[in-house]
Amino acid sequence: MSNVCREVITLQLGHYSNFVGTHWWNLQDASLSYDPETPPSEIQSDVLFREGRTTGGHVTHTPRLIALDLKGSLRTLRQEGSLYDAGKDTSAVTWEGSLMKVKESPAQKNSFLEDLDRLDRGEILAEDDLSSSLQPQRSGALRLDTVNSQLARVQKGYRLEGSVKVWSDFLRIHLHPRTVSVIHQYNHDGEAHRLEAFGQGEALLQGQVLEQLEDKLHFFVEECDYLQGFQVFCDLADGFAGLGSKVTEMLRDSYGGRGILTWGMAPVSHPNSTPMKELYHVLNGALGAVHMADHSSFFCPLTLRGGLGRRPSAPTAFPHLNYDAHLWYHSSAVLALALDALTLPYRLKKDSVPMWQVADSLAVSGRKVVAAYGAVPVPMMHGGSLPDALSTCADALPWKPLSACPEAADGRCYGQWATLRGFEGQRLVSSLAPGTQPDSPLHGLHSGEDVLESYIRSFYPTSPLALQLVSTPSMLTPPFPQIFSQSLGAQGFLQSRSPPPGSRAPAVSSAPVMTSFQSGPAVGSWLSELHRGASALDIHRVAPSFLSQGPEMADYREALEELRLLGRCYRDDSSGVTHTSSEEEDD
Predict the structure, then answer these.
(1) Spatial distance between the Cα atoms of 340 and 211, rounded to a whole number of angstroms
(2) What does the pLDDT look like over 545-567, one tens digit per residue?
(3) Per-residue pLDDT tens for 526-539?
(4) Spatial contact of 488 and 505, defined as CB atoms under 8 Å apart
(5) Using CA atoms, how far apart are residues 256 and 246, in angstroms rounded to an integer?
(6) Which of its termini does the chain have fewer beta carbons within 10 Å around, N or C?
(7) What does residue 554 show for φ and ψ, rounded to 5 degrees?
(8) Local structure of 461: helix, strand or coil
């Protein structure tokens, strides 16, 4: 059964989730290759991609994806895409009354999207005088495929930071016509008709929105042979938290037994935010976390924000990244790169672990909220070994919080799943001559798995631990932003010498990444903080309109109580006895 393709359907709910998802799908796209000279990939792409045919008979591979967003969020992207019926006019409507024609200037495409269009038309290939054998071999998932190296010359100067307004501004793949759904009741831009409150999102899953979602789900589910489950990327700070709560509930009720891994996405900051909107973000996050955790196999918040409260600490910093935490195009790229490693266990060709098994190993005794951590990238010296790299991090783990949840200082953890990806070309063990004394205990071990396990157990000596090592790195082709420090070489490894002053460091084309899921007392502290932040607000006084479209006050109070109890699940010590102090009772 290990070689059977267990399909996964992805749902992206909300604008920031679509930012993260777009980078994530671009990474999947860049890692695919159909060159017979290329070694087989360790990753099974058909877990995420589906095969189809255009009306002209061309084979396509598109993401098994449903993406929901608001009116005005697509800009240059056609909702039905252009892959299967390019050029067809879908704007005609039937109407018996009078019509008013309003002409709007089309959104301007950035240089990257213009080059993709030129590639689709064959213009770039003609300019580069390439043979027909370099034409993209898949007209769906890969626009670039084997011409990546050719486009690298064209795309060398891409700097999209000033031109990315929405997620489709840097989408490099074709989508299936059934992928995108636009919610027309609310606007993406402007102050009017915004999807700001949890209750607004809950109320959306009915009528046309529900019918469209069910239709899309049935389409993707029915063509799966061994559906293992769903991964849900959902905005946590706005009304999509309410919609995501209803969607995960529907998935649980309709597809029982399948894995549902839900990721609550939150940017470091929101444009045009106000103190009232910040209050809404806290309330949405609290309600969304408790409801989506209840309906999912596990729930993992994913953010570079220093906390989900109104006064967060500084955003997560990485030693070898120079990214703008407040720029969605940057922060979503960092999260997507980490997510590419976090989701590997159930996407591998060999030794794949079904998503429900990953969840069951972490969500024990009702602890269905987990925290994520990542070393992006892993500080590995070019030409060095894994023991060398980890020995330099003997005092502190190299990964940083990806869930606004600092690690516990006491080394207690109820379960952990660690993944190391991208060490291709590096040595996993030391090359010691017979009789040579190893520099450290790690240098004396004989497999990469033993090295990584021994290292992590030096910090978490008694916690259950699962490991996954994958040599293939994440491929960082345009439009992934160049946010890496000049100390890194093209493969993302540290260089022994920095570039000379005034010279330009090579573009980083791949990166080693190490990630960890954890379930432990630190998650309980995070949940308790979330509960305190929401319950401290007198909602009738400071945000009277928040509950205008639901939930009812009784349901709201019940959800906060469930959040408090969920946090208490993480207070058991190693003997399984719950310690309760008077201070904890008052939380």
Answers:
(1) 31
(2) 888 888 999 999 999 999 999 99
(3) 999 999 999 998 88
(4) yes
(5) 15
(6) N
(7) -65, -40
(8) coil
